[in-house]
Amino acid sequence: MTEVEKTLDNKSVRPTAMRILIYKFMASKNTAVALTDIENAFEKAERTTLYRTLKTFEEKGIVHQIDDGTNISKFALCQPGCNCEIDQDLHLHFHCSHCDKTVCLTEHKIPHINLPAVYIAEDANLVIKGICDSCSDH
Amino acid sequence: MTEVEKTLDNKSVRPTAMRILIYKFMASKNTAVALTDIENAFEKAERTTLYRTLKTFEEKGIVHQIDDGTNISKFALCQPGCNCEIDQDLHLHFHCSHCDKTVCLTEHKIPHINLPAVYIAEDANLVIKGICDSCSDH
DNA sequence: AGAGATCATGCAACAGAAGTGCATTTAATG
DNA sequence: CATTAAATGCACTTCTGTTGCATGATCTCT
Ligand SMILES: [Mn+2]
Ligand SMILES: [Mn+2]
Ligand SMILES: [Zn+2]
Ligand SMILES: [Zn+2]
Question: Is B11 within 8 Å of B60 (Cβ atoms)?
Fold first, then answer.
């Protein structure tokens, strides 16, 4: 049983061939990925399977979904210690308007916001847009 | 020349019948609207016209686009003094997970975030999700 | 090991949003 | 009024997300 298989197993996700491939693919990238990104990475991949795999991964706390403002859902592996399911790991995300890549800034948490009392805050999403490190130095 | 016509004219937007209707519709609501919302509000409206009207409104600083995490673009009228075009008016938005409505919290600005120097921040989007005032008291 | 149940995958099809091209209508200008 | 530019309507396309159902794979229990 490999490391990846153990990881999936720990999260009660059956480590099938496809799931292991998807997990490894996401682990190999340091940016968030869209469903289409995975689809393009594996010629022989079925969109629906990928879709449902990401759903499963998200439900089991293996990945978290990211709204980066492009209206295309992105996903990224949860870092060890990121307990999305329990009480939101409110780190922020950076979206590069040049290369269109989105990254997790896991060390940077969303500051607490004082809202009018009538609002009940349950979750928050903060995305900074601009130029990423790869695109700024060239 | 009515107030609305003057407003559009000031922003170099020709005040056509449809544009005036759309403007008034958005002004009558205190929530952000999606393209489909406008489409449903006017039986006889052409989706493309609405689409391009919103584009024009946005370019001319009459409305601003909102990414509330639903992957559906919303739009809201800019408040007087909101100069989105020049240097982003970084107020935050609230999205109610119960009634699915999104509102501008124009008084609440996005706090400044210290990023690693390699990132060049140009814009930011902060959405709080939870239960809105209408949905919390019942 | 074999039978039955459960879960994962593949295939097809659909819904909704976003966007484009082009013809036609409407409005501005001299 | 004639010319020109802008706005609208219509048709069509692309892309993302989503569901239903049949089939294939895996687990469980005897
Ligand atoms: Mn993240
Ligand atoms: Mn707003
Ligand atoms: Zn970049
Ligand atoms: Zn609500």
Answer: yes
State the amino acid at position A107 in one-letter form.
E
The tens digit of pLDDT for each residue in A78-128 reads 988 776 666 668 899 999 999 999 999 999 999 999 999 899 999 999 999
The CA A128 to ligand 3 mean position distance, Å, reads 12
Which tokens is B134 given? 């209408």
State the sign of the Cα–Cα–Cα–Cα dihedral B128, B129, B134, B138: negative
The set of strand D positions with any atom below 7 Å of a protein CB reads 6-11, 15-20, 26-27
Angle, CA of A12, A64 and B72, to the nearest 5°: 130
Return the CATH number at A119.
1.10.10.10
- DSSP letters along A21-68, please? HHHHHHHH-SS-EEHHHHHHH-TT--HHHHHHHHHHHHHTTSEEEE--
pTM, two decimal places: 0.92
Per-residue pLDDT tens for B51-95? 999 999 999 999 999 999 999 999 999 988 776 666 668 899 999
**How many Å lie between the centroid of ligand 4 and the Cα of residue B105?**
14
Query: Residue B127: which domain range?
Result: 3-137
Q: How far apart are CA A89 and CA A85, in angstroms?
A: 9
Residue B8 and residue B14 in contact, taking contact as beta carbons nearer than 8 Å: yes
Q: What region does A12 belong to: left with phi over 0, alpha with psi -120 to 50, or beta?
A: left
Provide the number of structural domains found in chain A. 1
Is the separation of the CB atoms in B33 and B76 below 8 Å? yes
Residue given tokens 């120097």 in the structure block: B117
